[in-house]
Amino acid sequence: MRIVLQKVSQASVNVVDEQTGLPDPSFEPQHIGTGYMLLVAVKDSDGDEQIAWLARKIANLRVFEDNEGKMNRSLADVDGAVLSISQFTLYGNVRKGNRPSFIEAGSPAHAEQVWHAFNKALANHGFTVLEGRFGAHMRVNLTNDGPVTILFDTDELMR
User: Fold this and answer.
1) Catalytic choice (89, 102, 128, 149)
2) Cis peptide before 147 (omega within 30 of 0)
3) pLDDT at residue 159, as a whole number
4) Alpha-carbon span 136 to 114, nearest angstrom
5) Which of 6, 30, 87, 154 is catalytic?
6) N or C: which end of the chain has fewer CB within 10 A?
7) Catalytic residue among 6, 50, 64, 88
8) Tens-digit pLDDT profile for residues 73-108
């Protein structure tokens, strides 16, 4: 799995109706205040081990400032929330040519299942976890606080 985590002071997502270009009335816009906005990509080889590792790592990550201005506080310490967005394009390979190849991205059925399981695992750590809509055209708005952006790649980190 690949995740781009951004520490935010606010983040929101809306789904776009493909025919009108307007907000999709069947999707309730999601919004968080202080917390993390996650862009999440899944490979076909990802499963329970990657989910558990990432959920634990993100739940315990300390990137919020303490009283001395040091990154020493976790999401729980600031009563933060998570906005999780599926984004297969994190597996875009641009080594050859100018058009990305997405061969490494997981099949949609598997990726959706793993993404939902990851969100549930993160919620099981006691956080509010809101989601975009898998496979949809979404508009994401956020205010990156810091800015703080952390990259997670289980292929690299779990060795």
Assistant:
1) 89
2) yes
3) 65
4) 17
5) 87
6) C
7) 88
8) 999 999 999 999 999 999 999 999 899 999 999 999
Residue 50: active-site member: no
Confidence of residue 156 (pLDDT cuts 50, 70, 90): confident
How far apart are alpha carbons 116 and 134 in whole angstroms? 9
- Quote the mean pLDDT of the chain: 96
Residue carrying structure tokens 């300390």:
62
b/e string for 65-88 if b means 16 or more Cβ within 10 A?
A: beeeeeeebebeeeebbbbbbbbb
Label residue 49 exposed, middle or buried (CB < 10 Å: 0-12, 13-18, 19+).
exposed
User: Which residue, among 42, 43, 35, has the nearest Cα to 59 in the 3D structure?
Assistant: 35
User: In the block, which residue shows the tokens 């959706």?
Assistant: 112
87 is catalytic: yes
Question: How far is 62 from 72, CA to CA, in rounded Å?
Answer: 5
Instruction: At 46, list the tokens.
Output: 């990802």
Pull the structure tokens for residue 146.
């810091």
